[in-house]
Amino acid sequence: MSTDARTGPAPVPTGPLSQIDYSERIPNNVNLNQDRRLQRALEGWQPKFLDWWKQLGPALPTKDVYLRTAIAVGRDGWAHFDHVPMEEYRWGIFLAERNPDRVVAFGKHKGEPAWQEVPGEHRADLMRLIVVQGDTEPASVEQQRILGETAPSIYDLRNLFQVNVEEGRHLWAMVYLLHAYFGREGREEAEQLLKRNSGDLDSPRILGAFNEATTDWLQFFMFTYFTDRDGKYQLGTLKESAFDPLARTCEFMLKEEAHHMFVGTTGVQRVVERTAEVMNEHGTSDTFEHGAIPLDVIQKYLNFQYSVSMDLFGSEQSTNAGNYYSSGVKGRWLETRRKDDHVLLDDTRQMNYVEDGEIRTKTVPMLSALNLDLRDEYVADCANGVRRWNQALEDAGLTERLILPHEGFNRRVGVYAAHHVSPTGEVLDDDAWAAAVDGWLPSEADRQAVAALMVPEYEYGKFAGWITPPQAGINEQPVEFDYVHLAGEGLD
Ligand code: BYC
Question: How far is 236 from 240, CA to CA, in rounded Å?
Answer without folding.
Answer: 7
